[in-house]
Amino acid sequence: xxxxxxxxxxxxxxxxxxxxxxxxxxxxxxxxxxxxxxxxxxxxxxxxxxxxxxxxxxxxxxxxxxxxxxxxxxxxxxxxxxxxxxxxxxxxxxxxxxxxxxxxxxxxxxxxxxxxxxxxxxxxxxxxxxxxxxxxxxxxxxxxxxxxxxxxxxxxxxxxxxxxxxxxxxxxxxxxxxxxxxxxxxxxxxxxxxxxxxxxxxxxxxxxxxxxxxxxxxxxxxxxxxxxxx
Length: 230
Prior knowledge:
Layout: E1 2-7, H1 10-22, E2 26-31, H2 44-58, E3 68-72, H3 78-86, E4 91-94, H4 102-107, E5 112-116, E6 123-125, H5 128-134, E7 141-146, E8 156-161, H6 173-193, E9 208-210, H7 215-229
Parallel strand pairs: 1-2, 1-4, 2-3, 4-5, 6-9
Antiparallel strand pairs: 5-7, 7-8
């Protein structure tokens, strides 16, 4: 059995639905609380993004998880360990939760993976695609890597370049990344199910860590993205 660690956001629910449609032997553990910065981060294009994803992924209908799902306040809560044990979970795939603590990492060594929206060899932490655009690095990636105790420094399993057609807007970026993540995870699960060796490559360097991107900087990256891709 495989466990997905997600949150109740449009792109994460869609991700879970698409994975479950093809692979039924999984559960979903949904983290209901989020870390919040002490400064303003919300911008208009993110509101537009949320509306766009709801329409694109769910045609504005009610969204819900399809697999057996558990709601937890914090993904590191003790009851998560109990859920994993009860469901005989062998592998974990993380998409969008807070940092996983040692008690879970040590229990699932080399069998717990994280989807990172960016190239961890350059940009670790939060808002990685945004920080890449801020630095005018428009080679954007979706990455799956092993989880270690240090954030985003584990061996890389798959790294897929995000193809951006001309006139793609920044509010569409997260949905495109989500589709890449679905493809990557399907490949991983096929390897697991067929008992094939999972490829991994040690990171050549550890990227700089970034936290939440402030509101004023986000406004700036929207303009940069438009100049590059408009």
